[in-house]
Amino acid sequence: MNFPENIRYTSEHEWIRVEGNEAYVGITDYAQSELGEIVFVDVPTVGETVGQGEVFGSIEAVKTVSDLNMPATGEVLAINENLDAQPELVNNDPYGEGWIIRIAVNNPAELDKLMDAAAYQALIG
Questions:
Q1: What is the CATH number of the domain that holds 12?
Q2: Span 68-92, mean pLDDT?
Q3: Which of 6, 104, 85 is nearest to 40 (CA)?
Q4: d(Cα 114, Cα 67) in Å, to the nearest integer?
Q5: Distance (Å, rounded) from C-alpha 115 to C-alpha 60?
Q6: What is the pTM of this model?
Q7: In-domain check, residue 3
Q8: Mean local confidence (pLDDT), 30-46
Q9: What proportion of the chain, given as a percentage, has pLDDT over 70?
Q10: Contact residues for 52 (Cβ-Cβ < 8 A; gap 6+)
Q11: Would you say 44 and 57 are in contact if contact means Cβ atoms under 8 Å apart?
């Protein structure tokens, strides 16, 4: 299991990596392993501002569909277009090529409420 130190984690198993005023969001290595083979990612919120903890889309695996929750309030700037043809990127590289959305972070202070790698690792045991 992979726990990068340069990102923050939610208890719902999303991650956020801030780069300047923007951030990338995806699901954790743990989440993708629990879901199994990812077959579809649905993010209908491009251009919308979504609050911290609110649903911004869904991710579909062979056996289940799960909501995607926003780690920090922000405007959805882009979705990872590569996931349309290759949703398995979320399984193969959840913290890299498998990112789901890019956002403009509205309130950087919200990031302080999220877990670091050690806290997330402790959460999932």
A1: 2.40.50.100
A2: 97
A3: 85
A4: 18
A5: 25
A6: 0.96
A7: no
A8: 95
A9: 100
A10: 70, 71, 72, 73, 107, 110, 113
A11: yes
Calculate mean pLDDT across residues 22-45.
Answer: 96
**Beta carbons of 54 and 75 less than 8 angstroms apart:** no
Domain span at 13: 8-124
SS3 at position 48:
coil
Banded model confidence at residue 111, pLDDT cuts 50, 70, 90: very high
Mean pLDDT of the chain: 96
> In the prediction, which pLDDT does 1 show?
86
Is a pLDDT exceeding 90 seen at residue 21? no
Report the C-alpha gap between 30 and 32 in whole angstroms. Answer: 6
Task: Name 17's bridge partners.
Answer: 24
> Within a domain: residue 48?
yes
Instruction: Assess if residue 2 is contained within a domain.
Output: no
Q: What is the dihedral of CA 34, 69, 8, 21, to 10 degrees?
A: 140
Domain count, the chain: 1
Tell whether 79 is covered by a domain.
yes
- Residue whose C-alpha is closest to residue 80's, from 60, 103, 64: 103
Residue type, 88: E
